[in-house]
């Protein structure tokens, strides 16, 4: 349940290539099922690598800011979430308004909704992050 199969994921070709090199069970299905587009074609409302996003756990939930990153840059207390974590992989490729579903290490089901994208590298013309 680390990723939702009912939600279509949209990834950039460069993210797909880099993530394919990581040995992560949580990413394998997502990468196999994702729609892949060239970086300049990715809509600006899609969570890509190094996107800064606001999520909430419900309609009135408090907003929390996270940045989706590679494992070597992860600092969960500062909001930098590894794409190899269940939470991180559940966010990748989602659009604003969609829900991320995952299981915590303790086995609890969690859900948050992507409320907005504060920064997406591709939207600023940065295709190298």
Automatic annotation (TrEMBL):
Top-level taxon in the UniProt lineage: Bacteria
One Pfam entry name: GreA_GreB
All copies of domain Transcription elongation factor GreA/GreB C-terminal, residue ranges: 43-117
Coiled coil location: none
Protein name from the UniProt record: Transcription elongation factor GreA/GreB C-terminal domain-containing protein
Organism: Hydrogenophaga electricum
Organism taxonomic ancestry: Bacteria, Pseudomonadati, Pseudomonadota, Betaproteobacteria, Burkholderiales
